[in-house]
């Protein structure tokens, strides 16, 4: 059939509070022109993130009731451990309250001054945890991944030649591990091919370096491999996931994405000595190794979510619904990262607002206007999130200026997406009226979460 329907029925609903344009203008001003600081009740369609915003299934809610809250040795932990190991094959499974906690533990141990961590593209919390340790996060995405208007099947791939050059120039002793983010969130939710993973693995083997995955959206990445990479069309998504993880030495995971839960994460490893150090730090910061900052009910829901995420009917619907929004925007001339990614649509703010320079945050201007026009909350991924200052205090922009509209899993219907489309098109039609912004407050790290602005 041509129509891709939601592979679920709606059992419970949450009302949306509608606001007027005049109300939203005042709300945004009071929030310092930062959508992160808007009360969720004042948002009509919330596309700020797909992290922790999924609608859980009936079986996950049933798991909530069955959760074993034993402090040590909870049966819910062992179900969780079994589900993670079934997918990753990794020996040591450490639960954490979310992905950034796994990153903090890992990079507190392997990072530090003088260390460098190459990745296809680090996302915000990964970069922050690498750099908080004193190490430097280095992005080595393939060239086509830097050009939103160009189409390619696997724009999230790491540039293998650049990785080799980086390792040889930096020195193996200064690189604790190599990381691949699947899918490449900062690069537009673009997938990484299995061949690229194999090639990076070969480089790691040559230089004796461990390979880790930032695995937040591993199932979406596997689905793209099934649909786009020769030789995988007849393999199940689960089999592709298992092969993908087999090339790694460990992973960090925010289960709030592809595990379909509202809280949770984990760290997996194969190195026993490193796992022991991570568990010791976990006990200090998160909790006992069989709960790691989570309630037993959360572990139960997480385990169930890992079983549900590899369902191909769900993934077909998930990827197609995102693709639908992207195709409609492309047809209307709205510049986005092409082809559409798995979990989000990314507006190319440079082409959308060519007259607003990077140091006046064109992505923030678009994000704020989306809220004013239709109560749609999105997030800037550009100079606000990743911009830096040089030694003279001058603004240094990242390669791309983007606005991400992340679609929560199993939450919004087709009519919600059509409404979002109408809002974006209205903003695009009036784009010549938009002006830039400047900071009135910025934090030293992860400034986009708490920054405040004023219009220029």
Describe this structure in words.
The chain is of the alpha/beta class and 456 residues long. The protein folds into two domains: 21-50 and 312-455, Alpha-Beta Complex (Aspartate Aminotransferase, domain 1), CATH 3.90.1150.10; 58-308, Type I PLP-dependent aspartate aminotransferase-like (Major domain) (Aspartate Aminotransferase, domain 2, 3-Layer(aba) Sandwich), CATH 3.40.640. Helices cover 40% and strands 13% of the residues. It has helices at residues 21-30, 58-66, 75-88, 99-110, 124-132, 160-170, 194-207, 218-228, 237-246, 272-285, 296-308, 312-331, 349-352, 362-374, 383-386, 414-429, and strands at residues 45-46, 92-96, 116-119, 136-139, 178-181, 211-214, 250-254, 265-269, 344-348, 376-377, 379-381, 388-389, 395-396, 402-406, 437-441, 452-455. Strands 2-8-7-6-5 form a five-stranded mixed sheet, with helices on both faces. It has a three-stranded antiparallel sheet with strand order 9-14-11. The chain has a two-stranded parallel ribbon with strand order 1-10. Helix 7 links the parallel strand 5 and strand 6. It is globular, with a radius of gyration of 21 Å.
């Amino acid at each position: 059939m041509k129509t891709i329907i939601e592979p679920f029925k709606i059992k419970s609903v949450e009302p949306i509070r509608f606001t007027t344009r005049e109300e939203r203008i005042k709300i945004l001003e009071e929030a310092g022109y930062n959508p992160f600081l808007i009360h969720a009740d004042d948002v009509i369609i919330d596309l700020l993130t797909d992290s922790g915003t999924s609608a859980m299934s009936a079986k996950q809610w049933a798991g909530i009731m069955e959760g074993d809250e034993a402090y040590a040795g909870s049966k819910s932990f062992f179900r969780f451990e079994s589900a993670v190991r079934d997918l990753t094959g990794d020996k040591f499974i450490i639960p954490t309250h979310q992905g950034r906690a796994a990153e903090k533990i890992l990079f507190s141990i392997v990072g530090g001054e003088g260390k460098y961590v190459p990745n296809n593209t680090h996302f915000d919390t990964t970069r922050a945890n690498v750099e908080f340790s004193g190490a430097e996060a280095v992005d080595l995405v393939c060239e086509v991944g830097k050009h939103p208007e160009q189409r390619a099947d696997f724009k999230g791939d790491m540039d293998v030649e650049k990785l080799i050059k980086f390792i040889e120039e930096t020195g193996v002793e200064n690189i604790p591990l190599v990381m691949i983010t699947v899918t490449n969130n900062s690069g537009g939710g673009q997938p990484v091919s299995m061949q690229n993973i194999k090639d990076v693995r070969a480089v790691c083997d040559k230089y004796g370096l461990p390979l880790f995955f930032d695995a937040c959206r591993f199932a979406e990445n596997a689905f793209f491999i099934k649909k786009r990479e020769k030789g995988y069309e007849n393999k199940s998504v689960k089999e592709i996931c298992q092969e993908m993880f087999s090339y790694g030495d460990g992973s960090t995971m925010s289960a709030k994405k592809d595990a379909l839960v509202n809280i949770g994460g984990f760290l997996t490893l194969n190195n026993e000595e490193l796992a022991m150090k991570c568990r010791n730090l976990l006990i200090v910061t998160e909790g006992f190794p069989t709960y790691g900052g989570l309630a037993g009910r959360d572990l139960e829901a997480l385990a169930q979510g890992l079983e549900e995420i590899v369902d191909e009917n769900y993934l077909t619907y998930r990827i197609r619904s995102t693709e639908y929004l992207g195709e409609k925007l492309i047809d209307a001339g709205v510049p986005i990262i092409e082809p559409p990614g798995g979990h989000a649509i990314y507006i190319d703010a440079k082409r959308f607002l060519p007259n607003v320079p990077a140091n006046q945050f064109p992505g923030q201007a678009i994000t704020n206007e989306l809220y004013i026009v239709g109560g749609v909350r999105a997030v800037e991924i550009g100079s606000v999130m990743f911009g830096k200052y040089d030694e003279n205090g001058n603004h240094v922009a990242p390669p791309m200026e983007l606005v991400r509209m992340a679609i929560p899993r199993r939450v919004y219907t087709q009519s919600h997406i059509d409404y979002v489309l109408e809002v974006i098109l209205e903003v695009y039609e009036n784009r010549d009226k938009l002006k830039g912004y400047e900071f009135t407050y910025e934090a030293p790290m992860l400034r986009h979460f708490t920054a405040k602005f004023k219009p220029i």
